[in-house]
Amino acid sequence: MSARDTDWDGVRLHVVTGKGGTGKTTVAAALALALAAGGRKVLLVEVEGRQGIAQVFDTPPLPYEERKIAVAPDGGDVYALAIDPEEAMLEYIEMFYGLKRAGKALTKLGVMDFATTIAPGLRDVLVTGKTTEAVRRRDKAGRRVYDAVVMDAPPTGRITRFLNVTNEVAGLARIGPVRHHADLVRGVVGSPETAVHFVSLLEEMPVQETLDGVANLREARLPVGGVFINMVRAELLPENVLTAAAADDFDPAELAVGLKAAGLADGTADAAAIAAALAEEIEEHARRTLLERRERESLAEAGVPRYELPLLADGADLAGLYELAEAIRDQGAA
Q1: pTM (predicted TM-score)
Q2: What is the number of structural domains in the chain?
Q3: 244 and 224: one domain?
């Protein structure tokens, strides 16, 4: 496997967040494929219990175990894990207290609800803890089990609290296994081995949430990654037509003449009607194109690497994931 320089050399935990509807899970899946390309082994983790990874890869619902779900371009494997907080709690009890059977009995009594009531952030600590354990894990020969881990994380509005929750739990438990566990999580999440990437569309609300999210992470001293601009449409109009159409200065009469000359309309009236309908589409496209340019400039203010992923004509199916993975690699993000 040949070495490849990327924007994120040294990063082993890629946290992917974004406003709902931006394609966060799809981008996380494509990033995992891109990172695994060329013979690497990558774990894709889901923490919200939505089975979004299974839907994207068109597989049955994932159990609470690491399972191979895809082969990356040029070889390489993508494994997936849907983290169940209750199962993670059982692992925690067994790992630190050696009480596996007792832990199962406690879950029947509602210990998970009890524990998260006392320490509301404990659930998040458990799922981040399971993820960071995969980042740190080594085999018997001392080699890393996974070359990278990708987390399909909660939405932008919750990401800073989600990643920073170990501070709260560590404050509740100043000594002992819980504090040790929280310190291990913070040691990975707050390190240069982690990058928190944002998924956005070229629309006002997702862009503003992305900018706010970047600012919040920086304030919390958490590692900011890049911005993946998803569902980017190609610009189809020449600049002079774009400017005129956006200013409502586009003349449908010229378009009607062209349609008639090309034999695409029967008579002057038909050409005029078709030209009027096309003119509305052109003006709408022009307005959207200029809006997207403004939002792209706004995202540049974040001062982080940006990657543009195309709008998939056939939707985000498995073939589309590989197309997005190729675009991610071509732009140096993996």
Answers
A1: 0.86
A2: 2
A3: no
Neighbours of 319 (CB within 10 A): 11
Q: Which residue has the tokens 């000359």?
A: 261
Q: What is the pLDDT of residues 220-261, one digit of tens each?
A: 999 999 999 999 998 888 888 888 887 777 778 877 887 877
Structural domain including 250 reads 239-289
DSSP line for 252-313? HHHHHHHHHHTT-SSHHHHHHHHHHHHHHHHHHHHHHHHHHHHHHHHHHTT-S-EEEEEPPT
CATH number at residue 188: 3.40.50.300
**Which residue type, as a one-letter code, is found at position 172?**
L
Q: In this structure, is residue 119 part of a structural domain?
A: yes
Quick check: 103 and 90 in contact, CB under 8 A?
yes
Q: Residue 321 and residue 20: Cα distance in Å, rounded? A: 19
- Residue 118 scores a pLDDT above 60: no
- For residue 274, CA distances in Å to 120, 128, 240, 241 come to 60, 56, 21, 18
Per-residue pLDDT tens digits for 139-179: 999 999 999 999 999 999 999 988 987 665 555 555 556 66
- 254 with 119, same domain? no
